[in-house]
Amino acid sequence: GAVVSQHPSRVICKSGTSVKIECRSLDFQATTMFWYRQFPKQSLMLMATSNEGSKATYEQGVEKDKFLINHASLTLSTLTVTSAHPEDSSFYICSASKPDGETYNEQFFGPGTRLTVL
Amino acid sequence: GNSVTQMEGPVTLSEEAFLTINCTYTATGYPSLFWYVQYPGEGLQLLLKATKADDKGSNKGFEATYRKETTSFHLEKGSVQVSDSAVYFCALRAAGNKLTFGGGTRVLVKP
């Protein structure tokens, strides 16, 4: 299989604090991990792409100092929301890319983390 | 830029009904097309895919055909079950490995 986990599944924090979300590929080594944000009843918006051992590539409009991504190993990437504010409240989803021998690398998605900033 | 448009839900059906979820896309080049499904409390799972024009992806009774002339990739299932209740996302992949998603369509199948 190809299982991706996220921790925590749900977090509530006070405005101004930082929150770290972990994304792990449990049974494979992920060459690339992706972080998405999903607003209620809206689509997934790609925030950034991270490769193990290198800096993340952020999509236009995403503040890299606000959303810190660390891809320390082939099985773990973390997203830290720094100085969180209520507008950062959202559903954050990660995916991990596994080479499948074809011309593209399938992405396997985590179950998501619901962040609520009070 | 690339974009995916799919019909808004929720779509409510009775068991054994026919399901269609429309999806159209805008992209440069020749994208690969995907349908993902998200069951309650779970992550997105790849349902089916098509990588070139006229390809038909199929899985679990669902089908979708890559129509280049109409830039569409509509999802269909002939007889839905309660267990098909989920949110369905149409997506495309153009250059690189980035996915562009549609807004998602919630499907509710009643017994």
Indicate the topology.
The complex is a heterodimer of chains A (118) and B (111).
Chain A: E1 4-7, E2 10-13, E3 19-25, E4 32-38, E5 44-51, E6 57-58, E7 67-73, E8 76-81, E9 90-99, E10 105-109, E11 113-117
Parallel strand pairs in A: 2-11
Antiparallel strand pairs in A: 1-3, 3-8, 4-5, 4-9, 5-6, 7-8, 9-10, 9-11
Chain B: E1 3-6, E2 11-14, E3 19-21, E4 23-26, E5 32-38, E6 44-50, E7 56-59, E8 62-65, E9 75-77, E10 86-93, E11 99-101, E12 105-110
Parallel strand pairs in B: 2-12
Antiparallel strand pairs in B: 1-4, 3-9, 5-6, 5-10, 7-8, 8-9, 10-11, 10-12
Q: Would you write up a description of this structure?
A:
The complex is a heterodimer of chains A (118) and B (111). With 118 residues, chain A is mainly β. In chain A, 0% of the residues lie in helices and 55% in strands. Chain A contains no helices and 11 strands. Chain A has strands spanning 4-7, 10-13, 19-25, 32-38, 44-51, 57-58, 67-73, 76-81, 90-99, 105-109, 113-117. Chain A is globular, with a radius of gyration of 14 Å. The N and C termini of chain A lie far apart (37 Å). Chain B is built from no helices and 12 strands. In chain B, the strands form 3 sheets. In chain B, strands 2, 5, 6, 10, 11 and 12 form a 6-stranded mixed beta sheet that branches. In chain B, strands 3-9-8-7 form a 4-stranded antiparallel beta sheet, with no helix packed on it. A two-stranded antiparallel sheet of chain B has the order 1-4. In chain B, strand 7 (56-59) and strand 8 (62-65) form a beta hairpin. Chain B is globular, with a radius of gyration of 13 Å.
